[in-house]
Amino acid sequence: DKRVSLHAMIQPLVAQRVIGDPIMKDQGFLSRVLIAYPDSKIGSRKITNDPVYIAAKRKAQAVLLTYNDRIKELLNIELQVLPDTRADLNLRQLDLSDQARSKLEAFYNRVEQASNKGEAFEYMTGFASKATEMAARIAGVQTLYANEHAAEITEEMMANGITMMEWYLSEMLRVSDSGRPNEELNAAE
């Protein structure tokens, strides 16, 4: 009844080797990691006094400030712990609305189909098999961010979670394709 989250940053070459390594995939750890591998901004980062850029930057800073304030509020909520313990969380259940469950089931079926031999997720079935669970978790986090007293995940929040997970699936596909070892080259080595 304890939870942990981890944010790790590694260099692209190392990331590609780790993600493409069949032994690392077999460990199951990578199946539980949401990967983002953005394009480098090197060469495009300019100092400018352009009013449009400055206005967009101020707007982004205001949004980030609002987000940070909400996170601080949530972090200051007293967590319920199980009696006779000091740290075991007394977790409450966050249910799915019928519409959210229906959306999640349709997402599951799409991912499962794409995991077949010859399909898009054939080489990342471990990650793909966790996609439904992670989409529900993302939707749950978004639900509680919006309302910490919410009792269920709505269809809208589930759609958001699925959309984000679809992006992570495409990102994992892109990264794992670039990092997949060449089997003929490996055999020759």
Uncertain residue segments? none
What is the mean pLDDT? Answer: 89
Main beta-sheet strand count, sense and barrel state: 2 strands, parallel
> What percentage of the residues does DSSP assign to strands (E)?
under 5%
What is the N-to-C succession of helices and strands?
Answer: HHHEHHHEHH
- Alpha-beta classification: mainly alpha
Distance between the termini: 46 Å
Number of strands: 2
Spatial sequence of strands, sheet with the most strands: 1-2
Name the helicity range.
55-70%
Number of helices: 8
| Large-scale geometry | globular
- If you compute it from the alpha carbons, what radius of gyration comes out, rounded to the nearest whole angstrom? 20 Å
Task: Please characterize this protein's 3D structure.
- This protein is mainly alpha-helical and 189 residues long.
- It is 57% helix and 2% strand.
- The protein is built from eight helices and two strands, in the order αααβαααβαα.
- A two-stranded parallel sheet has the order 1-2.
- The protein is globular, with a radius of gyration of 20 Å.
- The N and C termini lie far apart (46 Å).
- The relative contact order is 0.14.
- The mean pLDDT is 89.
Short structural summary:
The chain has 189 residues and is mostly helical. It is built from eight helices and two strands.
